[in-house]
Amino acid sequence: MQHTQFNQGLLSFLQSSPTPFHATNSMRTELIGAGFVELFEEDNWVIEEGGQYFVTRNESSIIAFTTPQLTFNQTGWRMIGAHTDSPCLKLKPNAQVDRFGYHQLGVEVYGGVLLHTWLDRDLSIAGRVTVKTKKGEIVSRLIDFQDPIAVVPNLAIHLNRQANEGFSVNPQEEILPILCGIENAFDLHEVLAAQLTKQHADVSIDAILDFELSLYDTQPAALVGLHKEYICAARLDNLLSCYVGLQALLHSDFQRPSLLICTDHEEIGSLSACGANGPFLDDVLRRLTPNPEQFVQSIQRSMMVSADNAHALHPNYANKHDKHHAPAINKGAVIKVNANQRYATNSETASIYRDMAAEENYDVQCFVVRSDMACGSTIGPITSGEIGVPTIDIGLPTFGMHSIRELAGSQDAFGLYKVLTRFTQRETLMTR
């Protein structure tokens, strides 16, 4: 795959994935197109040597894997991990709010949102809706309005003279999107039913039962900068890593057992049935290696690359970084290190990654948070703690993490893809 083709695919993936449900469905579609077989957790599994499989949970998390051999206790796994969710605004169950002449939506903040970045943006709605059909069945379907149908207008500076001195946004009162004027009839369930009928002609709706819907920015992902050296988009954290991991798996040589896991709910701690702090990965791996001793052997012959975005040195806020660990955009992926295990990297997993990057002539950077600042975390320590797999935390340098629109390098993702492809093909990790 060429660099330009890779980035165009990335932009398309970002555009088609406004929610974790859509991101998982986008990956599902690409895996099926590549010949992967879909498994269902409620069925009996028949896993064959030389197979390619995937399974989803909650429609928002996915595990895909290859089985060139079935002796996983001898080969181990080459695992890549990422997450499908991003900070956003989610509709409350009783979302319809009518006040002061406007139809608005009540929203709940999901994750660590940079709230002010959601002001004055062209917003749409996407997610999952569960309905009862006229046949009496309960089914769920994904919807995406696509068009800009909502906006959260800023308050004029004339009414807030201190705005440029810094201000907070109250998530209960000041972030409710406006849909239309009160003179227009509006019923949320009727609007959802109409959108479902438009997008899913096979579903005859008797009633809307419930929904999980999010707002998102309709501005498309784009290559920006004087020389197109940046990718500017929503949800780079962490759909960027999902796409890189997926392409690495699809373009491996299928000689080593490899696995991609992209889970939901990382932004809120990962503790859910489909999150990294839940049983999803362990359930799948134990079905593939049910013998307890062989399971432990397979894990200790494995390694996970936990891929999540990293904080690039922002030229306007350089004092927020340790100057000796200040990654630059388009200078390579970042090894993330934390003495308190907020990242799972150790000297051995870092060395393996450095060796693979050197083989690809790909630069390596390192990030350590300032010693007087709190450190974020990833699925890396959670996964390593849950199943005991040696893990490294890496990420692509990013500006504006958790903004409605983030910025990363147009060179970095393709370079990481090449290293991770090599990782899926690596025969030996460490010599003991």
Automatic annotation (TrEMBL):
It is an enzyme of class 3 (hydrolase). It holds the Pfam family Peptidase_M18. Its EC number is 3.4.11.-. Its cofactor is Zn(2+). The keyword Zinc applies. The keyword DNA damage does not apply. Gene3D superfamilies: Aminopeptidase i, Domain 2, Zn peptidases. Signal peptide: none annotated. GO terms for molecular function: aminopeptidase activity; metallopeptidase activity; zinc ion binding. One of its GO terms (biological process) is proteolysis. GO terms for cellular component: cytoplasm. Keywords: Aminopeptidase, Hydrolase, Metal-binding, Metalloprotease, Protease, Zinc. InterPro entries: Peptidase_M18, Peptidase_M18_dom2. NCBIfam families: PRK02813.1. Belongs to the peptidase M18 family. This is M18 family aminopeptidase.
